[in-house]
Amino acid sequence: MHRVYKYVLPAVDRELAQLRLLAQRIPDLELRAQALSSMDSKKFHCQGGGVYAAANLERRDVLIPLIVALQTISDYLDNLCDRSTSLDPDDFRLLHQSMMDAVNPEAKLQDYYAFRSEKDDGGYLHHLVRTCQLQISQLPSYRSVQSHVTELVGLYGDLQVYKHIHKDLREGHLLAWWELHRSSYPHLQWNEFAAATGSTLGMFMLFLAASQHQLSEQDAAAVKKIYFPHVCGLHILLDYLIDQEEDHAGGDLNFCNYYDNEGLLVERLGTIVNRAREDVKQLPASRFHRLIIEGLLALYLSDPKVRHQADVRDVSRRLMKNSPLTRLFFLINSIWIRKQQA
Asked: Which of 66, 128, 142, 119 is nearest to 98 (CA)?
């Protein structure tokens, strides 16, 4: 936490401040509004992702700009799709091609707004893509992880397309997509797999691994398998857990609503937490990654949204029962950070 407070959070703030200046100059009013809104409401995504740089401070000047830029693309596009008048899957697919290009240093920039009326962002999205490409080219072992990063970004893009199309079509497309992957993850339910694909943590972990010299392709594959699906799935299921009331009001799809009852939800979340803890034991810096898991639980379960949802409060209490001291530490820390930011 000393590293996070002294090095990571100030650097994340600097990166976001520079991006905000660019966003404020976006000519199109709607694109400008969504770019600024994504920074205002989802800043903690960049702060959380930046924590991975604390594991390799010597490379923080590469990792933090990379993580902030890719997460900002993700948050910006999520806003565009969530609040879009469009239900065109081709539009959503092309928007998310920017993330695919961002993680391929040799990719050429495209017109990512070709299928929508709002087009003039003053080069904002292109700047984010180029920033990712520039930083990625400085990771010494990126070639070893590139195929795995591309796979995760591809799955992320698939999810964003299927979850934002017409409401009557969403579940059918998601279930058909799951059929293509279920043999690889037989212990998961379809909504748990879908949730895992919505996380950027696996990408950030692979960036961290690639910041080391001479990472083998075999080790890169192991890192991806360790983070996906359990650590990634836990991340997004917790996000959906606290957003249930909000999503219900907005008519948005929520993967926590696909359990038959609260008891099963708690049981499955508990199973995924335990699998995630077991998975990260295989990593060299396993204690760091265990802290990530406990920090996720504390961050989401301390969110103010929890207080206003009786059923979510009950789930949170059951998940926090017999909490290890590290999780309690992060719980207090998360509450303190929120008060400081407020």
From this structure: 128
Instruction: Encode pLDDT of 122-143 as tens digits.
Output: 999 999 999 999 999 999 999 9
DSSP state of 308: T
- As a whole number of angstroms, the distance between CA 30 and CA 197 comes to 28
Quote the Cα angle for 114-116-117, to 5°. Answer: 110
Helix, strand or coil for residue 148? helix
Spell out the alpha helix ranges (H) of the chain.
2-3, 9-24, 29-50, 60-82, 89-102, 124-136, 142-164, 167-181, 190-197, 201-210, 217-227, 230-242, 244-250, 262-280, 286-301, 304-307, 310-320, 325-341
Q: Rounded to an integer, what distance in angstroms lies between the CA atom of residue 136 and that of residue 129?
A: 11
What's the rounded Cα separation, in Å, for the pair 335 and 44? 13
CA-to-CA dists, residue 188 to 34, 193, 262, angstroms: 34, 6, 18
Q: How far is CA 317 from CA 7, 173, 231, 292, in A?
A: 33, 34, 21, 20
Q: How far apart are CA 228 and CA 87, in angstroms?
A: 29
Residue (of 119, 103, 94) closest to 70 by Cα position: 103
Residues in the chain: 342
- 203-253 pLDDT per residue, tens: 999 999 999 999 999 999 999 999 999 999 999 999 999 888 888 777 788
In this model, does residue 322 exceed pLDDT 80?
A: no
Q: In angstroms, rounded to a whole number, what is the distance separating the alpha carbons of residues 277 and 287?
A: 10
Distance CA(42)–CA(233), nearest Å, equals 19
Q: State how far the Cα of 327 lies from the Cα of 97, in Å rounded to an integer.
A: 37
pLDDT in tens, 151-174: 999 999 999 999 999 889 999 999
